[in-house]
Write a structure and sequence with these properties.
The chain is of the alpha/beta class. Helices cover 43% and strands 22% of the residues. Strand 2, helix 5 and strand 3 form a beta-alpha-beta unit. The site of S-adenosylmethionine has 22 residues, from helix 1 and helix 4.
Length: 213
Amino acid sequence: MGREFISAFDKWADYYDQSVSGQSPEYREVFANYSDILEAVAEKARGKVLEFGTGTGNLTTKLLDHGLTVYGVEPSAKMREKAKEKISTIDVVDGDFLNFPPPKQPIDTIVSSFAFHHLTDEEKGRALGLYHRLLTDNGRIVFADTLYDNSLEKQRIFNWARTKGYLALLKDLQTEYYPLRGDLYRIFRTHGFIPYFKQLNQFVWLIIAEKEV
Ligand SMILES: C[S@@+](CC[C@H](N)C(=O)[O-])C[C@H]1O[C@@H](n2cnc3c(N)ncnc32)[C@H](O)[C@@H]1O
């Protein structure tokens, strides 16, 4: 489920770290302040952390730097290889937002960066239902991901990408499942979380969602 983009990530793995460092003009704005964005997620994580979509392990590294215990889940074999090269001490397991081996210890924080948009809104809701059951009572979710503040803003960003001639980016924006902020708010509330949103660059928002008990 939500795995339709994996072959693209297998192909991207070798040069993913170059893309996030701003070398790809089309994606420069998406990854603007990349390191600060990951740091913002790591700062809000606590306790035992379950990370989805580790990619090459950049957020994982920051979480470990904060002294946290991390269980990494990543569906792309090539991305898992890259993460293992970077962090030899950690095992990132094969899995995705909806299907993953149960963590061995109670989980206090679920994190992810640049990945939750791979799920449809229906899948996002199912994932949040799972996470509500999995998290400890004062648990939280901390995500950083692209979303649109509202439908006018979505149109403005599409127009911006079209005007710039960023057609690969435009295709991504049109084919992946980037939500409107209000819709995502409702999905979190429906599944027992109180979300807070903060914009970090033109595309990416920090989402901190506390579990309601
Ligand atoms: C844009 S990369 C982000 C990697 C890393 N988190 C970062 O911040 O650089 C998206 C990652 O999500 C993974 N992914 C794709 N579909 C997924 C799914 N359904 N569940 C979990 N991860 C997924 C991809 O394989 C890829 O490693």
